[in-house]
Every structure is written in C-alpha cells, then in structure tokens.
Amino acid sequence: MASPAFKLPRFYTAFFLVIEPISALVGAYFAHFRPLDYLQMTHAASAPSYAATIPVSTSVVLSQLANLYFLFTINEALVLRSTSDLRVWRTVLFGLLVADFGHLYSLKALGSEVYWNVLKWNAMDWGNVAFVYAGATLRMMFLAGIGLNTESGRKVAERVAARKAK
C-alpha cells in the first residue's frame, strides 16, 4: 500500500479499505448468486417464492447490480489503496457519497419507515440503510477533513474546539 501524503486515521483505513469493500463483495455475491434471497430480504411481499419464477429482466438487473457492487470494491480496495493523492481520495469518496444518497433514495418505495424504524429492519435493511448511513457519514467527515492532518482538517478541528469553548 502506498504511504499516504496525508495522515489517514485507522477508522478510515479500516472502513474504506477493508470493511466496505468486503461488504460490497457480499452484496455482489447475493445479488448475482443468490438472487431469490436478495429479493426476499429486500421486500418479501413482492419477491417471488421460487428461484425459477424470477423474471429474466430481474435476474439481469441483479447481475448488473452485482457488477456495480464489484466496482465499488475495486474503487475502494484497489484504487484508493494505490494512491496517496488526497485529491484522488476526495474524488472517489465524493462519487461514493453521491451513490450513497442515490442508494437511500432508491428505497423510497419501501415506505418512509425503512429509513428510521430499526425495530422492523432485517439484515438487508441494516445493510441498505444503517451501513449506508455509516458510510455516508464517514465520507462527509473525510471530505470535511475531520481526522486528517491537512489544512482543512485542522480548520474543522479549530471550529469544533471554538464551539466547545463557548
């Protein structure tokens, strides 16, 4: 791994270079190799009962989704690992942040409760909502410079310290 030209805290390293790429691979696996489970965990009421009844169009779309999850894995596990350029990191993470918001928006058909009612969440909801909230939060923190030994990171830290002093 390239030595970053900026200080990368362990929580960013763990999440962006290990946890999230593995999670995306798991999503790709289920979307492509276990589409019935993927559909039933997403919305059991509208999912087919048997794998043989999954429409071809749905199967194709799930394989395309798996391909996008694999792209996320490559972007984080390989592209970010291959560079110490802060501008590249910010660009990739900004793109993933936009994707986070698009992902959350795509859940709107499940009803507003999917965004907040944790007592009704299944494993897929924890991945589709809570995990995306966590990823988006860490991306916004990174983009704001929080925890980074950069000029913007120091400015954020100074603003937080000034607010606490009031």
From TrEMBL:
It comes from the Eukaryota. Residues 7-146 form the DUF7704 domain. Keywords: Membrane, Transmembrane, Transmembrane helix. Coiled coil: none annotated. The chain crosses the membrane at residues 12-30, 50-72, 92-110, 130-149. It holds the Pfam family DUF7704. InterPro entries: DUF7704 (IPR056121). This is DUF7704 domain-containing protein. It comes from Hyaloscypha hepaticicola. The lineage of its organism: Eukaryota, Fungi, Dikarya, Ascomycota, Pezizomycotina.
